[in-house]
Design goal:
Number of strands: 6
Shape: globular
Low-confidence stretches: none
Mean pLDDT: 88
Strand order of the largest sheet: 3-4-2-1-5-6
Largest sheet: 6 strands, antiparallel
Distance between the termini: 13 Å
Length: 155
């Protein structure tokens, strides 16, 4: 989970739910997003991810989106099954959300990653996704940012 947060500064929080073998990705937007706008973005994401996975020969088991708003901040949650989740899909989702909210999508305020470290994290993320597909994890996990660190908690 830490690798997801390291590779994608646009993802605020990530959780793993062993009951249904899903990952919940949270994106934070510094504006109240209307239901209509959320539905439009959700439709675009669903169609884009479906096309990408179809080209890859993959059928997702779970693809859900939820939104909540607290004051002037909205949270978009993407829930995906681990078995069909791919790193390139995460990149696609992040790009779409960044294009939809270029000024208001919250990004981790960090220095740019060293290119070698970034490649290592991407490889680690691919390895983690492969491992989780083969070996079902039994514990709920939550990854968040705390200042300059990424922390993963066992719930």
């Amino acid at each position: 989970l830490a690798s997801i947060l390291v590779c994608y500064e646009e993802i605020t929080k990530v959780g793993y739910e062993p009951k249904d073998d899903t990952i919940r990705l949270t994106f934070s937007i510094k504006e109240p997003v209307t239901k209509q706008r959320f539905d439009e973005i959700g439709k675009l994401l669903a169609q884009s991810v479906a096309a990408f996975l179809n080209l890859s020969g993959i059928q997702p088991r779970v693809f859900n989106m939820e939104m909540e708003t607290a004051g002037h901040i909205s949270f978009i949650h993407l829930i995906r099954d681990v078995q069909s989740l791919m790193r390139d899909e995460l990149s696609l989702v992040v790009d779409i959300l960044y294009d939809a909210f270029p000024e208001t999508l919250l990004l981790d305020d960090r220095d740019p990653l060293d290119p070698n470290f970034e490649v290592e994290q991407e490889n680690l993320l691919d390895h983690m996704l492969g491992t989780v597909r083969q070996h079902h994890l039994k514990e709920r996990l939550l990854g968040i940012r705390e200042g300059d660190r990424v922390v993963v908690y066992n719930q």
